[in-house]
Recover the amino acids of this structure.
């Protein structure tokens, strides 16, 4: 079951802004509360359209581990992740060009990573960060020079009307409201639960999903998860 990516006005404007920044090889910070779609937006960006190859910087990893992993992803052979290789590996990355670093959950960033990421950005390697609002606050307080290099995009949770317009004719608005309530209005889990309902409707030949149908499917799903020792929340990225 392929779900439609919901692009409302806010997300379209955000994507346009990110693509424009990346064309200039400039960096972006996407912030928002849990479930507002930060990771989805981070992964929706069409990096190839602006001539960029992506690699992930893991916030909890050390600088030398990240550099070794990223260079390996980019096709470098016999890369050492040793601490003493940081200058050499930094030079390899910065000289590579046409690379963009994706950094999810930047609120978990190791403090010593920011100085290296600043240098990487200054060498023309753009970074797209996503994280909780505290990232912007911490950068403003402790690293304002880094914040000045970022275009900050604030995300909010998508509204039910935008969701309904994407599935008009297949699912009633009350059913969407129920699914949103079931996942505590979190975009992190909404699409997982929506997929559960849509797949079941397709299997059973249901043309239009109403409130009662969505309730019954999710209630059965929740009871099945409890029998299997799960918590009823599908695994998904933020």
């Amino acid at each position: 079951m392929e779900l439609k990516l919901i692009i409302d006005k806010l997300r379209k404007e955000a994507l346009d802004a990110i693509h424009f920044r990346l064309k200039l090889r400039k960096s972006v910070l996407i912030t928002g509360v849990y479930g507002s779609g930060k990771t989805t937006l981070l992964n929706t960006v069409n990096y190839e359209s602006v001539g960029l190859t992506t690699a992930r910087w893991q916030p909890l990893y050390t600088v030398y581990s990240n550099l070794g992993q990223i260079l390996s992803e980019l096709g470098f052979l016999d890369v050492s992740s040793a601490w003493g290789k940081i200058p050499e590996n930094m030079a390899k990355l910065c000289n590579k060009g046409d690379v963009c670093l994706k950094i999810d959950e930047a609120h978990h960033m190791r403090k010593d990573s920011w100085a290296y990421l600043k240098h990487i950005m200054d060498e023309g390697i753009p970074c797209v960060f996503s994280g909780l609002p505290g990232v912007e606050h911490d950068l403003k307080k402790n690293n304002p020079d880094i914040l000045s290099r970022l275009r900050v995009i604030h995300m909010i949770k998508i509204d039910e009307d935008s969701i309904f317009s994407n599935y008009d004719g297949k699912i009633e608005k009350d059913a969407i409201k129920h699914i949103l309530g079931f996942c505590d209005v979190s975009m992190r889990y909404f699409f997982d639960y929506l997929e559960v309902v849509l797949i079941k409707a397709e299997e059973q030949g249901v043309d239009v999903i109403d409130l009662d149908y969505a309730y019954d499917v999710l209630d059965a799903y929740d009871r099945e998860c409890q029998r299997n020792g799960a918590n009823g929340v599908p695994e998904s990225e933020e």
